[in-house]
Q: What sequence folds into this?
């Protein structure tokens, strides 16, 4: 199946291809995605005729493709075509953070692509329990993922309030159905390293055969749901999602050594975390650098204090969600998404009880108006 624990070996190289793609013109995207995959041996190296292939895009919520919230439909179209050309059955599935899958696909233009290209929508609501040989002993994963012969991961390059950047590894969190994702936020609490370790082990369990990243237009600033589109002009592909995140993070100026997911992967021995060990094909890495890419505020990497001290100084040493009341329409989405129930009415305003807030940034991620941003504690502000 698509879900097998793995560690990188010489038989599973961490090569990454980088191909320029100026915009989402259909023919241009098709050509870029095809070349990115061809540089790695072609789609036939990853899927077999007659196999069932689950394509996992980023479908966070219903959004227009121009907003850079979701994997662009034209990138998805290109992947579907390559899978079908290889003689495999193409299924498209995700577990959106907000909204039902079919509705999200219909409102985002994804459903049109699925139907036009002869693919099928895979339901992701039913879960199966899968044993894991890591720090986390069990995961509940969508049955469609477990029963697929292969998984192709198609993430969008975006910023993320909790993880700083969301890319290849984080995209596979959508293989966990529905509200079960909230349980993982609740379990990790304010410990971002623990949450990142969970994401890394999940990606190793799902074991995507191939990752194709939509970095034609990414998202900077207040991502992953309300940031600003940023032209990057690239498509990336590779076998190892960790290596994809190392390369894409480097391209936007995010030091991989300071990213939670990359640190967790290095600690777990999953994937390739060293840039100098990743083979780059296609464009040279230096030619793709994006200047001035705006990342969300980060916790200072040197704040490695005992847990009791972190609890005591939580507000000072961590970033936290902050409500812009001028933009807030009191729609209640943030309240419904908060796993702690830490958001509620305070007079005529919505307020956050920071003593209960676990800094998962689910509220910031799903606010439809972008009224919640990532703020710094006072100690972090002093470092600027």
A:
């Amino acid at each position: 199946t698509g879900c097998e624990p793995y560690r990188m070996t010489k038989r599973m190289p961490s090569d990454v291809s980088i191909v320029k793609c100026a915009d989402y013109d259909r023919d241009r995207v098709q050509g870029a995605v095809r070349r990115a995959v061809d540089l790695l041996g072609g789609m036939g190296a990853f899927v077999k005729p007659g196999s069932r292939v689950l394509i996992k895009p980023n479908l966070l919520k219903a959004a227009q493709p121009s907003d850079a919230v979701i994997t662009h439909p034209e990138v998805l179209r290109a992947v579907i075509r390559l899978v079908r050309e290889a003689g495999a059955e193409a299924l498209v599935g995700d577990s959106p953070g907000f909204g039902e899958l079919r509705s999200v696909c219909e409102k985002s233009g994804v459903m049109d692509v699925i139907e036009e290209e002869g693919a099928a929508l895979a339901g992701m609501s039913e879960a199966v329990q899968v044993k894991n040989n890591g720090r986390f002993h069990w995961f509940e994963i969508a049955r469609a993922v477990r029963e697929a012969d292969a998984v192709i991961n198609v993430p969008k390059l975006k910023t993320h309030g909790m993880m700083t950047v969301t890319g290849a590894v984080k995209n596979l969190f959508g293989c966990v159905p529905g509200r079960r994702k909230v349980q993982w936020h609740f379990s990790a609490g304010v410990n971002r390293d623990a949450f990142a370790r969970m994401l890394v082990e999940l990606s190793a369990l799902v074991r995507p055969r191939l990752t194709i990243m939509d970095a034609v237009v990414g998202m900077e600033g207040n991502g992953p749901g309300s940031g600003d589109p940023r032209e990057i002009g690239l498509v990336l592909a590779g076998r190892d999602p960790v290596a994809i995140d190392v390369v894409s993070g480097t391209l936007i100026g995010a030091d991989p050594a300071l990213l939670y997911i990359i640190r967790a992967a290095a600690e777990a021995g999953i994937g390739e975390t060293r840039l100098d060990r990743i083979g780059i094909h296609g464009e040279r890495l230096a030619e793709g650098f994006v200047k001035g890419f705006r990342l969300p505020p980060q916790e200072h990497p040197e704040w490695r204090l005992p847990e009791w001290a972190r609890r005591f100084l939580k507000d000072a040493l961590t970033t936290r969600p902050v409500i812009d009341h001028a933009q807030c329409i009191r729609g209640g989405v943030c309240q419904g998404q908060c796993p702690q129930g830490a958001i509620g009415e305070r007079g005529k305003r919505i307020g956050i009880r920071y003593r209960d807030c676990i800094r998962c940034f689910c509220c910031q991620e799903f606010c439809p108006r972008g009224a919640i941003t990532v703020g710094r504690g006072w100690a972090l502000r002093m470092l600027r």
Notes: The first strand starts at residue 16 and ends at 20. The first helix runs from residue 26 to 38. The radius of gyration is 20 Å.
